[in-house]
Amino acid sequence: MKHWKAWLAQGVLYGAFALFLGVFSHWPRYQALPPGQALLKVSFIHHGQRVAPCRPYTPEELAKLPANMRTPLKCERERVPVEIEVDLDGATVFRHVAQPAGLSRDGASTVYHRLAVPAGEHRIAVRLKDAPGAAFAHTREAVLTLKEAQVLVIDFDPQKGVTLS
């Protein structure tokens, strides 16, 4: 006879837990973007070029090295910071200099940025610099129509260049 009270209490607790899950799975309503908005997402990991070009070892430098470390070229580890600029309809909306990772500044530069924009037609220009000097080596311009809640990813691939997908 005592077991029916335990079963009833357990049923009430399970019911309350199910009600709790049901309420909070539908409320508050999650909305990734406000109505009428699209999203530009700049996201990539890229190694900038080396700060200094590789050079051949002199015979004296090679003689000082142990036999197992004698390579024909001496290459510095440090890499150039990666710079990116994104223009939307003629105005710069994102400008960033991503420093290389690592204690020796020899790792990849990482960029991640989200920007909500109005849905509709936009002229997008992307410029990326990953080498020593003042010029942007990689550019891409496009006129795109962004739908409501669309996510446009701006990426960089060394073989393809700047991609918009």
Précis, in short:
The chain is α+β, with helices and mostly antiparallel strands and 165 residues long. It is 18% helix and 42% strand. The chain has helices at residues 3-26, 59-64; strands spanning 37-46, 55-56, 73-74, 82-88, 91-98, 109-118, 120-129, 138-146, 151-157, 161-164.
Describe the protein in words:
The chain has 165 residues and is of the alpha+beta class. It has two domains: 1-30; 33-50 and 80-164, Immunoglobulin-like (Sandwich). 18% of the residues lie in helices and 42% in strands. The protein has helices at residues 3-26, 59-64, and strands spanning 37-46, 55-56, 73-74, 82-88, 91-98, 109-118, 120-129, 138-146, 151-157, 161-164. The chain has a four-stranded mixed beta sheet with strand order 6-1-9-10, with no helix packed on it. A four-stranded antiparallel beta sheet has the order 5-4-7-8, with no helix packed on it. It has a two-stranded antiparallel sheet with strand order 2-3. The longest helix has 24 residues, at 3-26. The protein is flat and about 95 Å long.
CATH topology of the largest domain: Immunoglobulin-like
* Number of helices, where a helix is a run of at least 4 consecutive DSSP H or I residues: 2
Q: Give the name of the CATH architecture of the largest domain.
A: Sandwich
Q: What would the average pLDDT be, to the nearest integer? A: 91
The gyration radius over C-alpha positions equals 27 Å
Structural class by SSE content = alpha+beta
Count of discrete domains: 2
Count the strands?
A: 10
The CATH class of the largest domain: Mainly Beta
Bin the helical content. 10-25%
Strand fraction:
35-45%
